[in-house]
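for the recovery benchmark. tokens below, seq after
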């Protein structure tokens, strides 16, 4: 295949664009790592009797990569793993040399030491990784040196520099950390509700089963959101360059409980829908109500950056509750009533979250009936009374 002269420049530009897209979100971490390596070397050289303190730079590089965007306690734990692993490996290399058997012994001793010191899983794993890293370094230049605490001190210097660099001087953007985590939750929640609506519209039990699986999978995203919020709050509180982010972080924090409730209620909703459609009978009116819930989720996802859109969340949530109430008023079997009630519960969670995003005080919680009372017309569409 022959390429024209114009095709090559286009492909080159495309390749450069892809490379820039991949590099841009990671550039800060790369610069942090380089800065930590240089600072750790300079500080260790000034404080310790070692003219080439590469150990400090190694510890800094490992620690920066492990602690970027983590909570302070987890960052300290990871740095502790770096120090333990590098120190144990240094002792083994100096005492009995290197090789496969020594490498295995390093891992055993490093992980065992981390466990004895009360470290968690992160510290234990990081100790083993750090020990393996040192095992790959040629020990010939240091084998003749007597055992000393210099390497341990260098590891402490490197880990400390990494913690300072990531927490104070070049902290990650806390709003970006928690924002990505919460948007991941909303993306899966919105899609799960759409799947539930499709299953109701078609009376498809297989689709309802898939929707239930999708709803259950959101729990992992919730755990990640909790970790991200903790890390973001610590960064906004401790890092001077990021203190202006506290108000935005608090906006996320006010709604975390309601998001959790909405996810739980969606999981119950999916399970009830599966029970309802096992007979193969569609429920289009309930499907419309669930689609309104999904619309409320998408609006809520945008409301954190545009709080004025919280009113649209409320409108969509009240529409969902009103349509579910209309289905119940028209009469229905117990399974239909259960689904409608769960739609209403999820709508309450989303509307309350929207009010908190819009600036309502956390303790200012209106009764459910008042919260879901629709205006005479929402988005030009008349609504039945709840």
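predicted aa per position
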């Amino acid at each position: 295949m022959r390429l024209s002269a114009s095709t090559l420049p286009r492909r080159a530009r495309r390749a450069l664009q892809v490379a820039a897209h991949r590099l841009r979100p990671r550039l800060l971490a790369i610069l942090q790592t380089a800065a930590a390596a240089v600072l750790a070397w300079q500080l260790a050289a000034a404080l310790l009797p070692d003219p080439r303190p590469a150990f400090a730079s190694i510890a800094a590089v490992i620690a920066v990569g492990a602690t970027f965007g983590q909570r302070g306690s987890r960052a300290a734990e990871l740095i502790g793993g770096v120090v333990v692993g590098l120190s144990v490996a240094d002792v083994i290399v100096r005492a009995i040399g290197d090789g496969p058997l020594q490498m295995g012994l390093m891992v055993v001793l490093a992980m065992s030491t981390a466990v004895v010191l009360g470290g968690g899983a992160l510290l234990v794993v990081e100790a083993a990784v750090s020990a393996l890293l040192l095992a790959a370094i040629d020990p010939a230049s240091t084998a003749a040196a007597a055992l000393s605490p210099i390497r341990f001190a260098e590891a402490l210097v490197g880990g400390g520099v990494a913690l300072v660099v990531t927490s104070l001087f070049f902290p990650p953007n806390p709003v970006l950390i928690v924002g990505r985590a919460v948007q991941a939750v909303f993306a899966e929640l919105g899609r799960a509700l759409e799947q539930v609506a499709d299953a109701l519209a078609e009376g498809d039990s297989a689709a309802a089963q898939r929707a239930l699986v999708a709803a259950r999978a959101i729990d992992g995203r919730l755990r990640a959101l909790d970790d991200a919020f903790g890390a973001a709050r610590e960064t906004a509180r401790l890092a001077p360059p990021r203190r202006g982010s506290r108000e935005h972080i608090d906006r996320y924090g006010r709604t975390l409980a309601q998001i959790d409730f909405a996810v739980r209620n969606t999981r119950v909703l999916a399970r009830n829908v599966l029970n309802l459609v096992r007979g193969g009978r569609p429920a289009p009116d309930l499907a419309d109500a669930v689609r309104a819930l999904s619309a409320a989720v998408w609006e809520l996802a945008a409301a954190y950056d545009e709080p004025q859109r919280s009113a649209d969340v409320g409108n969509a949530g009240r529409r969902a509750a009103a349509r579910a109430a209309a289905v119940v008023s028209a009469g229905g079997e117990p399974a239909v009533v259960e689904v409608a009630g769960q739609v209403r519960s999820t709508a309450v969670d989303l509307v309350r979250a929207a009010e908190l995003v819009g600036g309502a005080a956390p303790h200012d919680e209106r009764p459910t009936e008042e919260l879901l009372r629709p205006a005479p017309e929402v988005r030009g569409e008349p609504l039945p009374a709840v």
